[in-house]
Amino acid sequence: MIDFDDAAALVLGLAQPLEAEDALLADACGRVLAAPVTAFADAPWRAVSAMDGYAVRDADLAVLPARLPIVDTIYAGRADPAPLLPGTCARIFTGAPTPEGADRVVVQEQVTQDDGHAVFSTAPGKGRHVRERGSDFRAGDVLLKAGATLTPQAMVAAASADQDRVNVVRRPRLMVVGTGDELAEPGRARQTLGAIPESVSFGVMALARQWGAEVVGRRRAPDDPAALEAVAAQALSLADVVVVTGGASVGERDHARAMFGPSGLDLVFSKVAIKPGKPVWIGRAGGRLVVGLPGNPTSALVTARLFLAPLLHGLAGGEPRTALAWAWAELAGDVPATGERETFLRGRRLADGRVMPASNQDSGAQKTLADSDVLIRRRAGDSGAGAGERVEVLAL
Question: What is the pTM of this model?
Answer without folding.
Answer: 0.87
